[in-house]
Description:
Layout: H1 3-8, H2 10-27, E1 32-34, H3 36-46, E2 49-52, H4 56-62, E3 69-70, H5 73-79, E4 91-94, H6 98-110, E5 116-119, H7 122-128, E6 136-139, E7 147-150
Amino acid sequence: MNQQFLIDNILLITVAVVSGGMLFFSSYGRFGRISANQASVLLNRQKALLLDLRDEKTIELLGGMPGSRTIEFSSLKAQADTLAKDKTVPVVLVCENARRSDAASRILKAAGYTQISILDGGFNAWVEAGLPIKREKTIKTNGSSGSKATN
């Protein structure tokens, strides 16, 4: 390479190297955050696996997302290999805050999953986007404590 070219374009070369490094390191070890609408597109077009990491009581109280699988964070590592036959299927993680999803994404990456996304804003973002939720209702019948139905 011509030395004069390097001298004349040192600023452009520096900017290219620094921006490339920033792109690489910003994605290294982090997982993509996606909006609720982007998650919906992944679910509908690519049949993504939607994992709800919230606890059962929270889901009963606030509702869940249609098509989601509820999995307790504490059992994720043991169940990671059985969540999907194809580990290239997109996975969308949902929780109340990013801590649980960040940790879950590392577990899934270690298990071989290649397309892991975190729902930015969690379940609240899903609701705010006007996307459907499912709620369980307790239906009381004569003489029984009730049974659950979903809508």
